[in-house]
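Quick start: what a row looks like.
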Amino acid sequence: MHQSLTIARLVGPVLSAIGIGMLVNQDIYRQMAGQFLAGYPYIYFSGILALVAGLYILNVHNVWTRDWRCLITAIGWFITCVGVFRLLAPQFTVFVAGTIVATSGFFIGAGIVLLGLGGFITFKGYVA
């Protein structure tokens, strides 16, 4: 349980801050995404970081339970898969992400989801 709380206290506020940023600064986030997708080295390096972060979470917290802690493990798996995808197919990452980011409501929807998920995980990490 200690590892779950530690990871929740780190990941939750980060997801919440990203979600708030997406909701408040949609145009800036769209510009940053365009700049990010214009450079393969950024995609590759972020893939390495995502893979390391995801594998770290999975190594210290591979817990499948019927409570909130399974969200931590699911986030670890998601981050790991994103990292592998960016490393193996950076050109396809540009295509997929470019299409998604071009959607008008993407940053609103992603911001709401990240804020909700981050808020829930933060609450569980600090209140439990």
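That is the whole record. Residues 2-24 form the longest helix (23 residues). The CA atoms of residues 14 and 39 lie 24 Å apart.
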